[in-house]
Amino acid sequence: MAWFNKASDSDLAQSMDLAVHCARTAREEGNHEREAAFHEDLNGMIEEATSRGWKQGRN
What we know:
By secondary structure, the chain is mainly alpha-helical. It has helices spanning 9-28, 32-51.
């Protein structure tokens, strides 16, 4: 079980924002392995958010 399965909604949202920022930074730096790792984590977070009934997109 991943840590974010037990995270509060607030912690999950903040972690998703951070993962997006880190993936973008890694892409800009040309670090494709790091970018892929953040995307993998983010995909798990998105699955968790979806299971909580969250909708895609920002409000």
